[in-house]
Specification:
The mean pLDDT is 75. The chain is 81% helix and 0% strand. The N and C termini lie far apart (111 Å). The chain has two domains: 68 residues, no CATH class; 90 residues. By secondary structure, it is mainly α. It holds the Pfam family NAGLU_C. This is NAGLU. Its EC number is 3.2.1.50. InterPro entries: NAGLU (IPR007781), NAGLU_C (IPR024732).
Length: 159
């Protein structure tokens, strides 16, 4: 883990201190991924101390106090690298996510329409069966009542 309190970007720090430290960190992580051996923070701290921090502390190099080079040109080059390399990756990821969401939406709409058609067909089937039952019940009831009334009336008339 790399954690710095009040890290600075003063002359020489990025190139001679932070960059080598990040290099060690990424190499150790990649090595851990390739070998399957868990990452060791203790090994990282030891390696950084002896390969970066101690040499940087005892280095007597004189670093510039003013910015060097054309920072606008460097920023433009970074943007070109980003747009040439990463923008196409970003767009392809975005498009694949968008298309997969569109695909998921289509699949869900198909599923929903099938579900609704099945549900509605079952509902309508039950509703129609109930209607038919009620109709038949009423028909049988009317037949039963007419037979009962005819028998009752014939008994009344004959008495």
């Amino acid at each position: 883990m790399i954690a710095d309190y009040a890290s600075k970007q003063w002359a020489g720090l990025i190139k001679h201190y932070y960059s080598p430290r990040w290099g060690i960190f990424t190499k150790m992580l990649l090595n851990s991924l390739h070998t399957g051996i868990p990452y060791s923070q203790r090994d990282f701290d030891y390696k950084v101390f002896y390969e970066v921090e101690q040499p940087f502390t005892f280095d007597i190099s004189i670093f510039p106090t003013q910015p060097e080079g054309d920072t606008i040109y460097l920023a433009q080059e970074i943007i070109k690298i980003f747009f040439n390399n990463y923008l196409s990756i970003y767009l392809s990821i975005y498009l694949s996510i968008y298309l997969s969401i569109s695909y998921i939406t289509r699949v869900l709409s198909i599923y929903l329409s099938i579900y609704l058609s099945i549900y509605l067909s079952i509902y309508l089937s039950i509703y129609l069966n109930v209607l038919i039952f009620v109709y038949l019940f009423c028909s049988y009831l009317s037949i039963y009542l007419s037979i009962y009334l005819s028998i009752y009336l014939s008994v009344l008339v004959n008495n």
